[in-house]
Amino acid sequence: DVKVTQSSRYLVKRTGEKVFLECVQDMDHENMFWYRQDPGLGLRLIYFSYDVKMKEKGDIPEGYSVSREKKERFSLILESASTNQTSMYLCASWDRPTEAFFGQGTRLTVV
Amino acid sequence: AQTVTQSQPEMSVQEAETVTLSCTYDTSENNYYLFWYKQPPSRQMILVIRQEAYKQQNATENRFSVNFQKAAKSFSLKISDSQLGDTAMYFCAFMNTNAGKSTFGDGTTLTVKP
Asked: Are B4 and B92 in contact (CB under 8 A)?
């Protein structure tokens, strides 16, 4: 079974902190994604990566950055966390033409 | 840019009955993938069904089937013999063949009533 693992299920951080959300997949997938999920807004793509050290902006990249130093790991970084970044964050990896596999999500609260 | 629209924020169905969830999308691409994902209260996103745009035949997975109308850019999900375990939020998703941008709808919350 493909496994996509996110480092934390719940996270509480203070405004202004630098926050790292880690995602690891074990199936050698090239493509990895970070989404943000908010009620009534569906899943919105923050960043995606199609290879090591490659990244592309999604629809809402402002306030975020990413790092992909190894194929299996894709990190989402909040440089200076703000309260409007309180949300559910989902990581996914994809090996076309099959499905995208998702992690269990990280519910981040910024106080 | 692609858009995906799910016009039904909430739906309910009686156990054992059939329900159809709507999804429309807009794209200028000719080749792409469409998906329906299920997100139960556990939050784990689970693939329900996948459709490749170049295939004319509608995809079917057990009780789940789609009505894919490429010209109309419509991709509805039919759930037959609904079960209590089908209660979840359902997302329609578009993914281009370059494995790049993906777009999800806002979701439809489905409740199956006993």
From this structure: yes
Each residue's pLDDT tens digit, B59-86: 999 999 999 999 999 999 999 999 999 9
Tell me, what's the pLDDT at B99?
58
Residue of chain A nearest B101, judged by CA positions: A58
Residue B72 CA: distances (Å) to CA of A76, B4, B19, B25, B52: 37, 13, 21, 9, 15
Identify the band that residue A62 occupies on the pLDDT scale cut at 50, 70 and 90: very high
Nearest to B99 among A35, A41, A94 (CB): A94
Q: CA-CA distances (angstroms) from residue B28 to B42, B71, B95, B111, B113? A: 35, 11, 13, 34, 39
* CB pair distance less than 8 Å for B50 and A99: yes
Q: Residue A1 and residue A8: Cα distance in Å, rounded?
A: 20
Nearest to B106 among A33, A40, A90 (CB): A40
Digit-coded pLDDT (tens) for A5-59: 999 999 999 999 999 999 999 988 889 999 999 988 889 999 999 889 899 999 9
